[in-house]
Amino acid sequence: MIAAGCGDGCIKVYHSASGRLKKTLTIGVSQKFPTTSLAFRPQSTESGKGAE
Question: Does residue 25 carry a pLDDT above 90?
Answer without folding.
Answer: no
